[in-house]
Amino acid sequence: MSDELGDILISHLESDFSDKLDRLRSKTCEMATFNPRSDEGKKVAEIIDDVRDRHDEAIRERTKEFDGVDLKPDEFRVPKRDLVEAYDQLASDNAKLLSSIQRAIENVRRYQSEIFIGTRRHPGMKYTPIKSVGICVPGASAPLPSTVIMTGVPAQVAGVERIAVVSPPRFKGTIHPVILAVCHALGIEEVYRIGGVQAVAALADGTEHIPSVDKIVGPGNMWVQTAKRILFGQVGIDSTAGPSEVLVLANDQAIPAWIAADMLSQAEHDPGSAMLFTDSRELAIAVLNELKHQVQQLSRSARTVRCLSEYSRIAVFGDMDEVIHWANAFAAEHVQIQCGENSRQIADQITTAGAIFIGPYTPVAAGDYWAGPSHTLPTGGGARFSSALTSNDFVKSISLIEYSADQLAAAADDIIRLAETEGLDAHARSVDIRRQK
């Protein structure tokens, strides 16, 4: 099975090297959402319209169709007692895990508070928190309680009044208990056992049992992200995040086994993209051999190999300048730099990345769970124009403008002149009338 990985090693000596990189970049960019004109894109729009027209009944039918669970509308919301029970059960069964969760919450809250701009005061700007936020938490193939922390805590730091969590029901109609325990630890009581397009549509439009929100954040598959994209404008969103990505930049000082482990940690998401850019062919070959060895030890080995073959590459460049150039072109979600004493210098030259992990002792997992920045990051080249989710994404800035009579009089001629240039006579008159009294 690991023999399938031979083709992922490419070199600048190949005539079509740049074409291969461009194809890989295009492929990762296309993995976030469906084309609206595709059959899948049309299906997403159809489900949104169905929820808009039939509300809770549509959610019930779609949940039964996609998740195999028949929930009555009054069963959508998880009772508070279930949240408390999940928390107490975790405290009893796995106190160490609960302790780790609580410390992770503290780390994220501390970091998000330090960078928060909402407490700053400026005479020309007023900051107000978004009133309500919906968080999409994946829970089907693998539960992601860390997503609750990485999205919920920044929202709380910003002062969001209402936070609603949606997560798909498992085969018995329940949400993974650790997700529920984390919600309780954060004081989030509004949790719904629905997922997919129907959950996004419910949060955007509102139904009898699920009030609408002002912004929707959180990861999800292509169906969820396409729904977010379609509904953007009616409701705010964080981004249309695609499958997870890691791009490792390394030289001959790096440890091959560690790089392979980092690549596999992203590829096991399936789909996910794991790339190594290096100027050392020897390192590239060593990492490839490590991948072949380590992937056999994974419980998801077959899926991970398929993901590596389809979406991942080990690319050997002529020098580090080319490595840096292509790293900025890819604008990956996670950029790991393992170049010994040159790591910080190279980090300074990376201008497009969701997050940068510097040095051999900074695996992506440290950011995913612990360091403080949110792991909700731009993917698919989105780091060219967007950033990680932070507490600042949950506030709105409102301009404050106040003129005295003298100040308006001093600017009146200029304002009138500009308004008349645009043919907006009423604009000009609204200024002129104030100096005629």
Offer a quick outline of the entry:
The protein has 437 residues and is α/β, with parallel strands linked by helices.
Topology (elements, then pairings):
Elements: E1 9-11, H1 17-29, H2 39-54, H3 56-67, H4 80-93, H5 95-114, E2 125-129, E3 132-136, H6 145-158, E4 162-166, H7 177-186, E5 190-192, H8 196-205, E6 215-217, H9 222-231, E7 236-237, E8 244-250, H10 256-267, E9 272-278, H11 281-295, H12 301-311, E10 313-316, H13 320-330, E11 334-338, H14 343-349, E12 355-358, H15 364-369, E13 395-399, H16 405-421, H17 425-432
Parallel strand pairs: 1-10, 3-4, 3-6, 4-5, 6-7, 8-9, 8-11, 9-10, 11-12
Antiparallel strand pairs: 2-13
Helix pairs in contact: 2-3, 2-8, 2-9, 3-8, 4-5, 4-7, 5-6, 6-7, 8-9, 10-11, 16-17
Top-tier CATH class of the largest domain: Alpha Beta
Structural class: alpha/beta
Rg, please?
25 Å
Number of helices: 17
Mean pLDDT: 93
- CATH topology annotation of the largest domain: Rossmann fold
Sequence of strands across the biggest β-sheet = 1-10-9-8-11-12
- CATH level-4 homologous superfamily of the largest domain: Nitrogenase molybdenum iron protein domain
Count of individual beta strands? 13
Q: What is the string of SSEs from the N terminus onward?
A: EHHHHHEEHEHEHEHEEHEHHEHEHEHEHH
CATH architecture of the largest domain: 3-Layer(aba) Sandwich
Major beta-sheet overview = 6 strands, parallel
